[in-house]
Specification:
With 415 residues, this protein is of the alpha+beta class. The protein contains ten helices and 19 strands. The protein has helices spanning 3-9, 41-54, 86-106, 124-139, 149-155, 182-195, 239-246, 308-321, 370-382, 398-401; strands spanning 31-37, 59-62, 78-79, 113-114, 117-121, 144-147, 170-174, 178-179, 199-201, 206-212, 215-221, 224-233, 253-262, 272-275, 280-284, 290-294, 330-340, 347-349, 356-360. The strands form three sheets. Strands 1, 2, 9, 10, 11, 12, 18 and 19 form an eight-stranded mixed beta sheet that branches. It has an eight-stranded mixed beta sheet with strand order 6-7-5-14-15-16-13-17. Strand 15 and strand 16 (290-294) form a beta hairpin. The longest helix has 21 residues, at 86-106.
C-alpha cells in the first residue's frame, strides 16, 4: 500500500494533492541528450530510470498521441514470469519484482494485485512441457508448481473440468501471476520522469530519422526537427515502420490482437485462468468485469478494429471453460497491434544505426516487461551502448547467428 494512502486514510481532513498531474506542455528544444520515441509504458519507464539512477534529464519523450494511449491502453494488464527459457524467466522475474514495489516507489497506487495464474493442461504432452517449465521457473526463483485436478477444483470451483473433447488433466500454477492498472503504471512513470526534468511531448509524431555516417543525429517531427545524441525506439506495434525510417528492416510481422470484457458480476474468479489448447484466457477485474482474450488474428495488419468472427470463436472457448458465462452480456471489444518475431521474444539493444537503440518485438508480453525494460534500456543508454547482461540474449543479430530464444507456446495468446 502506498504510504500516502495510509496517511490520508487516517487523516480526518483528507488532504488532496494533484500530484498525478503532469507539467504543462513546453516548446521542443533544438537538441536533447536522449530522444525516446514512444510515450507508452516502456518509453516513460526508460526516461524515469535515466533520471533517477543515472542523472540524465535532458530527455524528450515524443508521443504521437497521448500518454499511454497506444498498446499500453489496449492490453489486458497481466503480469507473470512463467516462461519457457532461462533467458525469458530471468528477465520477466526481475520485472515482477519491480512491479511489486512500484506503488510505494511512485507514492501512487498502480492497483497491483497478486492473484496467481493457472494454465491448464489438456493432454499428456502438455503435462510434460509444464513439468519442464516448472523446473526452469523454480531454478531462477519463480514460484511455479505443477498441480492436479483436485487442486484446480479448489482454486477455481466454477471451472468446467471436462470441456468438450479436452478434459483438464493438470495445471501450471504460477503464484507470482498478477495484474495492475495499465494507465496508472504509465502515469506513475511519467510523473516521476517529468518531475526529475524529462519532457513529455504528446501529439508529437516522428516522421523521419536523421542519420549521418551511420549514426543517428536527430529526428523529424510534425513540430519540427530535433537533434539528439541518442535515440530510443519504443513504439510497440509500429516498430517496423519506424525502423524503416532509420534505414533498416526488423524481423517482425505485425498482427492485431483482440480482447473483450463482460458486464460486472459478483467476484467468483481470483486466479488468472488460461488454456493454450483453447487459445483463451479469462480473468475477473476488481470491478467484477470478466476480461477475455486469446490468440492474435491470423493475418498481418496495422489496425485496431475488432470483428465478429474472432468474438464468436473466442467466446465459444470461454463458455466451454465457464459455461455459466453464456448468460452474461458483452460490454466492450477492442484490439491492439502486436509485433511478433519468429522466436516470440523481443528485440532489445543495439541496431545497425549507431546510438539508435531498439525496444521492439514485444508481441503479447510488453506490459509485463515494462519496469525491467525501462531499467535495462536506461542502463544501455547511460553506459554509452554497453548492453546489460539481462538483455544480451534479445539482440537483433541473434537471427543472423541462429541463437533464437524460443518462447513459442509460453502463453495462451498469439502462439
Amino acid at each position: 500500500m502506498p504510504f500516502s494512502l495510509l496517511k490520508y486514510g487516517l487523516n480526518n481532513d483528507y488532504p488532496f494533492e494533484k500530484d498525478a498531474d503532469l507539467p504543462p506542455p513546453v516548446p521542443l528544444k533544438s537538441h536533447y541528450d536522449v530522444v525516446i520515441i514512444g510515450g507508452g509504458g516502456h518509453g516513460v519507464a526508460t526516461a524515469y530510470y535515466l533520471a533517477k539512477y543515472h542523472g540524465i534529464t535532458n530527455v524528450a519523450i515524443l508521443e504521437k498521441g497521448y500518454l499511454g494511449g497506444g498498446n499500453t491502453a489496449r492490453n489486458t494488464a497481466v503480469i507473470r514470469s512463467n516462461y519457457l527459457t532461462s533467458e525469458g524467466v530471468k528477465f520477466y522475474a526481475e520485472s515482477v519484482k519491480l512491479y511489486q514495489e512500484l506503488s510505494n516507489e511512485f507514492d501512487f497506487n498502480i492497483m497491483y494485485s497478486r492473484r496467481g495464474q493457472l494454465t491448464l493442461a489438456h493432454t499428456d504432452s502438455a503435462i510434460r512441457a509444464f513439468r519442464q517449465r516448472t523446473e526452469v521457473n523454480k531454478h531462477f526463483g519463480g514460484k511455479t508448481e505443477l498441480i492436479g485436478p483436485q487442486e484446480i477444483r479448489e482454486l477455481v470451483p466454477t471451472l468446467n473440468m471436462n470441456p468438450g473433447h479436452l478434459p483438464v488433466l493438470a495445471g501450471l500454477w504460477h503464484m507470482d501471476g498478477a495484474t495492475a492498472r495499465h494507465d496508472a503504471v504509465a502515469w506513475g512513470y511519467a510523473k516521476g520522469a517529468t518531475q526529475r526534468g524529462a519532457e513529455l511531448h504528446q501529439l508529437t509524431e516522428v516522421t523521419g530519422i536523421k542519420t549521418e555516417n551511420g549514426k543517428v543525429v536527430g529526428v523529424k517531427t510534425n513540430r519540427g526537427d530535433v537533434g539528439c545524441g541518442v535515440a530510443v525506439q519504443a513504439v510497440s506495434g509500429h516498430s517496423s515502420l519506424l525502423a524503416e525510417m532509420a534505414g533498416f528492416r526488423l524481423p517482425i510481422v505485425t498482427y492485431p490482437l483482440q480482447a473483450m470484457v463482460t458486464q460486472p458480476v459478483k467476484p467468483f474468479l481470483n486466479p488468472l485462468v488460461s488454456s493454450p489448447a483453447y487459445h483463451c484466457y479469462v480473468q475477473q477485474t476488481g470491478r467484477g468485469e470478466i476480461v477475455i482474450g486469446g490468440g492474435s488474428d491470423p493475418y498481418p495488419l496495422y489496425g485496431t478494429r475488432s470483428d465478429l468472427n474472432l468474438k464468436e470463436g473466442l467466446l465459444a472457448h470461454a463458455i466451454e471453460l465457464f459455461p455459466f458465462m453464456a448468460n452474461l452480456k458483452l460490454m466492450r471489444q477492442w484490439a491492439g497491434i502486436t509485433d511478433m518475431t519468429s522466436d516470440y521474444s523481443p528485440i532489445m539493444g543495439l541496431s545497425p544505426v549507431e546510438n539508435y537503440y531498439l525496444d521492439a518485438g514485444w508481441g503479447t508480453w510488453g506490459f509485463k516487461s515494462t519496469p525491467i525494460c525501462g531499467k535495462t534500456m536506461a542502463e544501455l543508454v547511460a553506459s554509452g551502448g554497453k548492453v546489460p547482461d539481462l538483455i544480451k540474449p534479445f539482440a537483433m543479430d541473434r537471427f543472423d547467428t541462429f541463437r533464437q530464444v524460443n518462447e513459442m507456446g509460453a502463453t495462451a495468446a498469439s502462439h
